[in-house]
């Protein structure tokens, strides 16, 4: 039996007392993070917001097995947040659709959640009407075929979950939207976000993209709780780190009778870990700001600025293998001689420093600590 087959569906229960400790810890981390973001100032806050949105976009797709190019995501995020786009690739329509949905869910958290809005989100995720090579009912409920979560080789498949049949979706979604509206300010914010995630992904109303939309709804619920349009931690990134546990607990809960205690405990812990890990992203933003402040008077040509920007975006130690002449040629689209000359110039200006190695193996990294 699946949870939606229970006579009590969709009445969910949980043990309140068992949640108190982890909920208190999560709230404490959340408050500390928001305080630190407030201290950054408007410009740095926008940079931090961009980094989180890029991370969220890449990881929410990765959970579903889809690998996005971070530079392409960065291009869409920069365009939509009004940040510099120099040196970034053209906007990809499909990637831009995902960024648009995530932004609408958070910046528009005060707007009503309706069937039309959900279907528009789905159509925006699949602007070509295809999921990979397969045609999809973009912006429409899934078809009459059974919706199953399956693993294993053909002939020996294991069914992890089967969603409610197609003919139940209209009623299920109407009930979901009524719950969404009535639960606002009535259920503890993190708990409501966790229930919304579980509730939506259990109905599984669309052919594809249900996980991404469930996580968008989670962010929207958290934005409503915090009364903030900006997200400063990526829950999807943390779910990706704990993906196996995520699916295991989700499956067990979907095979239960509506007691969400185990799911809520994991979700609250995952949220705290996501908040704590956002410190790394914020540190990266601060390092970038400090770097450009140190070198604001440096005279760089377009090639140099493009390459340096690439290194800055990677963050301290994030540009694997360091910068070589070959990599400079690839990024700046210049000759090897020009690349060598411009690298030496950057080193003389104390923007780059050589790593260990000589001859063909020499590489460079940014001099982050220069004052």
Give a written overview of the molecule.
This protein folds into 2 domains: 3-285, Fido-like domain (Fic-like fold, Orthogonal Bundle), CATH 1.10.3290.10; 295-366, Winged helix-like DNA-binding domain superfamily/Winged helix DNA-binding domain (Arc Repressor Mutant, subunit A, Orthogonal Bundle), CATH 1.10.10.10. A hairpin with a 6-residue loop joins strand 3 and strand 4. The N and C termini lie far apart (64 Å). It contains 14 helices and 6 strands. It is mostly helical and 371 residues long. The model has no long low-confidence stretch (mean pLDDT 91).
List the main descriptive attributes of the protein structure presented here.
Fic-like fold; mainly alpha; 2 domains; elongated; two-stranded antiparallel ribbon; single chain; 371 residues; Arc Repressor Mutant, subunit A
Cα(first) to Cα(last) distance is: 64 Å
Oligomer: single chain
What is the CATH first-level class name of the largest domain?
Mainly Alpha
Largest sheet: 2 strands, antiparallel
Q: What Rg do the Cα atoms give?
A: 23 Å
H/E element order: HHHHHEEEEHHHHHHHHHEE
Q: What do the pLDDT scores average to?
A: 91
Report the principal-axis shape. Answer: elongated
Question: So how many helices?
Answer: 14
What's the CATH topology label of the largest domain? Answer: Fic-like fold
Number of strands: 6
* Unreliable parts: none
Q: Tell me the strand percentage band.
A: 5-15%
> What percent of the residues sit in helical stretches (DSSP H or I)?
55-70%
Give the domain tally: 2
Q: Return the structural class.
A: mainly alpha
CATH architecture of the largest domain: Orthogonal Bundle
| CATH superfamily annotation of the largest domain | Fido-like domain
- In the sheet with the most strands, the strands line up as 1-2
